[in-house]
Amino acid sequence: MSLFQKNNFKGPVFFKESLRANKELQQINDILKYTKDSQLEKKAKLISFGIEGEKNIHFELENSHIPMYVLHDVYLEDEGLSAQIDYIIMTRKKIFVIECKNLIGTITIDNNNNFTREYTLNGKKIKEGIYSPITQNNRHLELIKQMRGKEKGMLSKKIFEKYFYDNYQSLVVLANPRSILNNKYAKKDVKKQVIKADQLIHYIQETTKNNDNVYTEQDLIDLSNWFIAHHIENPITIINESPQKDYDFSDDLRQDLKKYRLKTSQENNYKPYFIFTNQQMENLIKLLPVTIDELKKINGFADIKCEKFGNDIISIIQKYKMDN
């Protein structure tokens, strides 16, 4: 039995909405009532920007009058890979996987697909390179393709994989209305993957207007239920760090974790990121879990990974906590 049933489907249907960012911001603000912490203040500001940006996208979708099913904030994990997907928009003709960016300043994409941004902070002009959100979002699509493909037979899997990128599309949406997109020199295939929030509805309409229907409403309901069933709700962890009084052992711990990851991956013929990604390693260093329960609170460390590698990782971390 489906979690959701059909309706008239004349406009957007929000299957999954998320208040996670609002809850995290509230927890941080509660802490800041009693203590001053510049890192938490910065984090609160970034979360606030993100919330406002996603509100802009939500407004555009809500007033689109396009029949679509929308999921907000979906976290997937499989074989050591993970994806935090901001929006999944499902129409009868195409599925859009959206990475929402609430960046300030001018975002420039050059002819080599490099992203930079320029902005002014305290009267000082800053120019910096940023990690490609296109690359990030393409990894999200690859994970969806991998997970969905596992559930299909050999023939249907081949057909699914052949037409996957015809039916699923990556889209990066700049949600800050004050940001400027400079894509004059971007390659055509990259240019069409990055838009501003106020272009979103027109983009969906133009992209799908000549397409035939691929999905029935029941298909979209089933797919929505699939995403919800595989979504992992991670607990919110607020990191209130204090400076190390003796010495910062994070570099030494990082090296030991890297050595363990490499050794374990070679012994088991795994890809190193299957043990843990670089981001997951940084979270280990920040949170310093010393029990399996604490380890499970970190994004990417589900039951299977904790069972395989949890005790080894904890032993490495415990050594540093005991010495310091």
TrEMBL record:
Residue ranges of every copy of the HRDC domain listed in the record: 247-324
GO-annotated molecular function: nucleic acid binding; nucleotide binding
Pfam families from the UniProt entry: HRDC (PF00570), NERD (PF08378)
Domain NERD: 49-167
InterPro entries xref list: HRDC-like_sf, HRDC_dom, HRDC_dom_sf, NERD
Coiled coil, from the record: none
Protein name listed in UniProt: HRDC domain-containing protein
Protein species of origin: Longibaculum muris
